[in-house]
Amino acid sequence: MSRTRSLVTTSWSRRDFLRISGAGAVTLGMMMVSPSLLARSRPWARHDAIMELLDGAEPDTSGVTLELPSVSEDGSNISLTVRVDSAQENGEYVKSIHLFAPDNPNPEIAVFHLTPLSGQAQIATRIRLNESQRVFAVAKLSDGSFRIGSQDARVTVSGCLTDDATYDSSGLMQARVRTPRSLRPGEVGEVLTIINHPMETGFREDADGNTIPRRIIHSFVAELDGETVLRADFHPSLAANPYLRFHVKPNGSGGTLALEWTDDEGETTREEAELSVS
Amino acid sequence: MTRIMPRHVIGLSAAALLLFGGQAMAEEPISYEQASLLASTCFACHGTDGRKEGNFAPIAGRPYESLNAQLIAFRNDQVPGTTVMNRLAAGYSEAELEAIALYLSGITDRRRD
Amino acid sequence: MDSIKMNRRKLLKLLGAGGALAAAGPLASPAFAARTAGRVVGVGGGFGGATAAKYLKRLQPGLDVTLVEPAREFYTCPFSNLYLGGMRQMEQIVHGYDTLKNRYGIKVVHQYAEDVDGEAHTVRLANGETLPYDKLVLSPGIDIDFEGLEGYDEAAAEKLPHAWKAGDQTRLLRSQLEAMDDGGTFILSAPDNPFRCPPGPYERVSQIAHYFSQHKPRSKILLLDAKDAFSKQGLFMDGWREVYGDMIEWVGLSDDGRVVRVDADSRELESEFGEIHRGDVVNVVPPQKAGAIAHRAGVTNGSGWVPVKPHTFESQQVDDIYVVGDATIAAPMPKSGFCANAQARVTAAAIVAELNGQDPLDPVWTNTCYSVIAPEYGISVAGVYRVIDGEIREVEGSGGVSPRDADAAFRRREAEYAVQWYNAIVQDTWETRGLQKTLT
């Protein structure tokens, strides 16, 4: 009985459960759980975009931490940090992290494809939330399994903020990068980047009521001497002026870190920085 | 906004100032305590009980009819040159503004600061 | 106590004789007044705590109300920017507690409240005394989060003032501005949300620009911001251009405006992407958290602020402790003195209702924040808030900011109204007087 209950509270994942009790017990457990409880314990189940990604797999509900402010006064720019508790080495690593805001017009926020060179499965960025909702992060591991985490985020409409985006994104596609000055062998370094871009969603109207066409940066790549550190797909739910904080763990003596962004109009920006290891 | 009459008001006639919104038939009566709470939202700019005089129009003890008419006009954004009262009055129902007008009109101690 | 007499005849006429009526006596309803039970302790003598104490006594004069506040006089943050700009004197933003003591019978204890025992319902003061309570109102305001910004500790604040609690810090910043040479650079670093007084940093640079334009016209102002959007942004930026030309430069988050490290000795601020800004006078408005006693009382959560029940502002975590003002999570209501005063009135009514075994009233709160860009240039943001679907929300269709296209007369009127508002709210809070009728 206690095992059955643990399914509901999600403190155990399905995978753990299979390991402990065998598949038969799971079936029994599922039957004893009322459908409403089940829905509450698997809150992602009603979101098509997430179910599609999982493709029938049952995700582990531990090991993914999502940090968001519990209340935000500006839904157009909300800090988010996602962390997956996993080794990030050849053999066992997080392959991708998928962020979802299911109640946004466009539920996908971004997908981050990681490699052993990423060093650490942790990303910080800034997102848009149309309304209060639960934000999800799904991690896909190198063994094909999934983990999922979620966090409630409340957005209040604040009369203190003017409605229209008064921020003038001058210097379109202009990027800033901050890399560690030097790293010790085996040390994981933190890379910080931001690029000026309006990330037009395609949902906004101009003063004359005409729809402003969608124009976003849709892809980002970070390479160390030609090897992928991080690749990312951005969606309109990523905040304007895409901001990223990710990690790199260079092999040997470091090399050249190249960052490249591409937007819907085919414009690209490339930045390079030397990473020295000593 | 509607409010169910709290039990304690019944039989508490001295405190039970029952106001019925003229237009809003669906609204519940507004108790005396609720009226005083609504009116107290004026005090930060008009002083406690609306007694502060200065650049703002005096509001304490003015006739109910003129207070009410003025508040409704603010709510409908019909007062030329208004700075903030239109933005504030829009947050209340007509019945609530009547209650506020009634409460303020009843402040007969006109001692000013 | 003031007494308010309803005009009985008028009410009868209006409501009809059938009304279950009515000439209500004083605001304090007689049934409340007759009862005496109840000890309420308030901690914090600012807009929230002083207002709560006063309205508790107005509603139920028989209550035993004690207000704990270490300072004998309270300097308001509202209008402290006007002191920096030279439009007000310090003596005009300080308020005492005599009327609250003498006219309202509030016991004012000038001690620091060190701890709260929520189980035992007691507050321990720095002098060792213990105050028992039935209901506790905490209005501790903010504390500077000295762990939130590298290099910014209490010693650094003596060199790079925050001036985000009015008083000595405000004087220090003013004296640094006075000592600065013409042609110098003033830098203000503004934090991310949430923080006390969302329009505050922007009014402050306006006021300092006013001072510079009169005394040091070749000086520059750099505003480094950890946000891409701020309160009344369009209005502020219009006003800056109109009144001060290009004296004020604002750098938002996406242009690397966020300061991540401070060097107090060299007066240098380092941005997120490594740019170093050196100022002649540097004002760091640092990250903030609820005042210390809220943490001691166990009412804060992981965010450093206090979650409250929306109808009453009773703590979600500890029974019989009510928290009002900047320390609370009350968004979309801003952390303003106006809101603290509004919350305190609603909470006082809720406490009295609860002590008398009644349901709380339907809360409604308002906010109006004036910002004075120049002596004849005021702007405002207003809001009306209620509990809707169990959470605090701004009433749709209400509130908002001054029109972008308003004329000079409108801006002048809002500057005058700012003064009127200040004089009224200090009367409503401390029963003290604003000392000045105009800004010029």
Structural write-up:
The complex is a heterotrimer of chains A (278), B (113) and C (440). Chain A is mostly beta strands and 278 residues long. Helix content of chain A is 14%, strand content 37%. In chain A, strand 14 (254-263) and strand 15 (268-276) form a beta hairpin. In chain A, helix 1 crosses helix 3 and helix 2 (14-21) packs across helix 3 (23-32). The relative contact order of chain A is 0.15. The longest helix of chain B is centred in the middle third of the chain and has 12 residues, at 64-75. Chain C has 440 residues and is of the alpha/beta class. In chain C, 29% of the residues lie in helices and 24% in strands. In chain C, helix 3 links the parallel strand 1 and strand 2. The relative contact order of chain C is 0.14. Chains B and C meet through helix 1, helix 2 and helix 5 of B and helix 1, helix 11, strand 22, strand 23 and helix 12 of C.
How do the strands and helices of this protein lay out in sequence?
The complex is a heterotrimer of chains A (278), B (113) and C (440).
Chain A: H1 2-9, H2 14-21, H3 23-32, H4 35-41, H5 48-54, E1 64-67, E2 71-72, E3 78-84, E4 94-100, E5 108-114, E6 122-127, E7 133-141, E8 146-155, E9 175-178, E10 189-195, E11 217-224, E12 227-234, E13 243-248, E14 254-263, E15 268-276
Parallel strand pairs in A: 2-8
Antiparallel strand pairs in A: 1-3, 3-6, 4-5, 4-7, 5-12, 6-13, 7-8, 9-10, 10-13, 11-12, 11-14, 14-15
Helix pairs in contact in A: 1-3, 2-3
Chain B: H1 32-40, H2 43-46, H3 64-75, H4 85-89, H5 94-105
Helix pairs in contact in B: 1-5, 3-5
Chain C: H1 8-15, H2 30-34, E1 39-43, H3 47-59, E2 64-68, E3 74-75, H4 80-84, E4 94-95, H5 98-102, E5 107-109, E6 113-117, E7 122-125, E8 130-132, E9 135-138, E10 142-144, H6 154-157, H7 168-179, E11 185-190, H8 200-215, E12 220-225, H9 233-244, E13 248-251, E14 259-263, E15 268-271, E16 276-278, E17 281-284, E18 288-290, H10 292-296, E19 306-307, E20 321-323, E21 328-329, H11 337-355, E22 364-374, E23 377-388, E24 391-394, E25 400-401, H12 408-430
Parallel strand pairs in C: 1-2, 1-9, 2-5, 9-20, 11-12, 11-17, 12-13, 19-21
Antiparallel strand pairs in C: 3-4, 6-7, 7-8, 10-18, 14-15, 15-16, 22-23, 23-24, 23-25
Helix pairs in contact in C: 3-11, 3-12, 8-9
